[in-house]
Write a structure and sequence with these properties.
This protein is of the alpha/beta class. 21% of the residues lie in helices and 34% in strands. The chain has helices at residues 17-34, 50-58, 109-119, and strands at 4-6, 9-15, 41-46, 65-75, 82-87, 97-105, 125-133, 146-150, 156-157, 173-176. Strand 4 (65-75) and strand 5 form a beta hairpin. Bound molecules: 1-O-pyrophosphono-5-O-phosphono-alpha-D-ribofuranose and hypoxanthine (HPA). 1-O-pyrophosphono-5-O-phosphono-alpha-D-ribofuranose (PRP) binds next to strand 6 and helix 3. Pathway: Purine metabolism; IMP biosynthesis via salvage pathway; IMP from hypoxanthine: step 1/1. It holds the Pfam family Pribosyltran. This is Hypoxanthine phosphoribosyltransferase.
């Protein structure tokens, strides 16, 4: 692994492909143990989570379903602020064990705005699996049930994460080199 340049910025290797896969296998093993017999519904939030979702799901050995949604945020009126709606969520969550799949919880804003919509449907359990989180960046507290890595507050790239549309196809995770 070496430094990569995407658009105008340089990124250094941060988490290798093997380390990623080993950690995701550990998360899957824990989920296999915790949710056996519950036939959980995994909801992966696009775009960024597609690599994490695909790999984690392949390591599951229990009965499980998966669905993909896209969140769209737009400016509301001053009184409502940003509103996040889901495109593509067809399943009825009532009484289900639901696991949200995210590549990264950064400020927590996305999930903070979206989770109430899911809770409204009264799932039996609403769990969160996130590959990455940046504790120093978290503004909206989110309880992550299955966490891959806690990382410093630096911009990351690769394994689904993009910089202005590019870099999602890198099989490992890179960190922005500041002032490069
Ligand atoms: O905790 P937050 O500060 O809300 O950041 C996390 C969100 O940001 C990224 O999505 P993004 O909106 O960049 O869209 P993308 O997945 O299509 O890249 C990521 O996939 C999370 O959904
Ligand atoms: O560090 C990041 N990299 C790419 N996309 C992101 N979305 C939230 N945080 C990040």
């Amino acid at each position: 692994m070496s430094v990569v340049k995407v658009h105008d910025k340089e990124f250094q290797p941060y988490i290798g492909a093997t380390e990623l896969q080993l950690r995701i296998q550990e998360l899957a093993a824990q989920i296999n143990k915790d949710l056996a017999g519950e036939r959980p519904l995994f909801i992966a939030i696009l775009n960024g989570s597609f690599c994490f979702a695909a790999d984690l799901f392949k390591y599951l050995t229990i009965d499980a379903e998966i669905s993909f949604i896209k969140l769209v945020s737009y400016k509301g009126t001053k009184s409502t602020g940003n509103v996040v709606t889901a495109i593509g969520l067809d399943e009825d969550l009532y009484g289900r064990t639901v696991v949200i799949l995210e590549d990264i919880v950064d400020t927590g804003k996305t999930l903070n705005q979206f989770l109430p919509q899911l809770e409204h449907q009264q799932p039996k359990k609403l769990l969160i699996a996130a590959l990455l989180t940046k504790p120093e960046a978290l503004v909206y507290p989110i309880k992550i049930d299955y966490l891959g890595f806690s990382v410093p507050n630096k911009f990351l790239l690769g394994y689904g994460l993009d910089y202005d549309g590019l870099g999602r196809n890198l099989p490992e995770i890179y960190q922005l080199i500041e002032n490069a």
